Amino acid sequence: MTLDYSKFRDLSPFELKDTLISLASSKADRVMLNAGRGNPNFLATLPRAAFFLLGQYALAEARLSLSYLSPGLGGTVRIEGIEARFDRFIESNEDKEEAALLGHALSYVRDQMGLPADTFLVEMVEGILGCYYPTPPRMLTLSEKIVGQYVLREMVGGRISLDSTDFFATEGGTAAMAYVFNSLKQNDLIKKGDKVAIGMPIFSPYIEIPQLEEYGLEVVPVQADPSLDWQYPESELEKLRDPAVKMFFCVNPSNPPSVKMNDASLEKIASIVKDRPDLMILTDDVYGTFADGFRSLYAICPRNTILVYSFSKYFGATGWRLGVIGMHKDNAIDARLAQLPADAKAALAKRYSSLTTDSADLKFIDRLVADSRAVALNHTAGLSTPQQVQMVLFSLFALMDHEGRYKATLKSVIRRREAALYHELGVAPSEDANAVDYYTLIDLEDTCRALYGEEFAQWMLKRASTGEILFRIADETGIVLLPGAGFGATRPSARASLANLNEFQYAAIGRSLRKMVEEYHAEFVKPQA
């Protein structure tokens, strides 16, 4: 019996995903291939091994105090002699690769960054033991410097000094998004009815959050053009000149086209910001570490830009929930707070009165921290300290990879998977120097045109309007792809992650999709026979 796929047309994004998975997994004799989710199937093992070995050292340090009371009891870490004790521990584990990483990490922190080795070791030991509240709550002091150096090297190529940027450690990019939207609203920087521009296609929550009742924002789409290799046309970026547009949200490199903004787009936005110094920008750069020579909007508009970065994809750490928000110490958002009307300032002074008697000097990034814990719990705010330690070890692992071997390996894996998919599909993948290929958008029109010509492509576009194709793919082949429309794409397309399956499985996806197109083509030519 043939399913009526049209009944699924009006599902919500979550219902749609669950329905696709249900259809794809409905046959017991078939393996579901879920290419719809971006969770990678690769992960950085060495910095994790270093984390677990550091935990053993930390326990040994804790056992130096109070252990006479009970074999299971430890005490406060002693800073005196800690560097020498650490060196002996590393020597005793010299056969382990992760011990070498820890030893090199201490050398890098001390000799390259000029940070005090003993203070660093105490922060890492106490952090991994989780025996104190995060202090400062925004981020542990030396952890902020180390993670900041990694993020700025990758996002701005060293064009902005470490001392110019504040970082707030968050529970991944997800929490960063939620915190930023909430604090913008709480601080009267965005209000119901305000216009916000969103660079599309984009990670769907950036489209959905502004539409929630508590925000009620008007979305102005800034649409990337597939015929321009998914760059923003100048005419679309010109929308940012509208003074009614309070903020611009973008993911760079984009999700799902996986293309970084080219220099022309970056410079265009910089010129608009020069004319509109009040424009606020949030750039989510989680995929920036997969690109060569990446430049964030934070590199060219630091005063106006909130930088969000997550460790989840590059290090295969979605379950760790590790991310940061970065803001320039001299920023336009703080300047806007200073320009709020007197009644708004009075209300905010009351809101933050438990933190300071002079809320006018409270920076937006510190308001983010307080708002993340409903202000009253600010004293216990902050990302858990073991999470911050793992973030530091990921950062040091990347900072010390001078030859870029880890990045080169990941890029090679992803691009081999892309090649396998498109080879079996029978079309060539796009050749674009700005593409990072974490995802791919399979364009229905372009694919059908390449395989069987213009007339068939136009016929398929009409079939796409029925909403059946992705559901039929899931039902008949066990493959889950997500509709590009859910990410703000204007052309019928399917998003496939190139990070969460193995190469032979992407080849199988390509073959299955080609077979499906052949079946549609047979239907197309049948009346003409």
From TrEMBL:
The protein's required cofactors: pyridoxal 5'-phosphate
Keywords, ordered alphabetically: Aminotransferase, Pyridoxal phosphate, Transferase
Keyword rRNA processing: no
InterPro entries the record matches: Aminotransferase_I/II_large, Aspartate_4-decarboxylase, AspAT/PAT-like, NHTrfase_class1_PyrdxlP-BS, PyrdxlP-dep_Trfase, PyrdxlP-dep_Trfase_major, PyrdxlP-dep_Trfase_small
The protein's enzyme class: transferase
GO molecular function terms noted in the UniProt entry: aspartate 4-decarboxylase activity; L-aspartate:2-oxoglutarate aminotransferase activity; pyridoxal phosphate binding
Reactions that this protein is recorded to catalyse: L-aspartate + 2-oxoglutarate = oxaloacetate + L-glutamate
Assigned EC number: 2.6.1.-
Span of domain Aminotransferase class I/classII large: 160-503
GO BP annotations listed: aspartate metabolic process
Family of the protein in this entry: Belongs to the class-I pyridoxal-phosphate-dependent aminotransferase family.
Protein name (database record): Aminotransferase
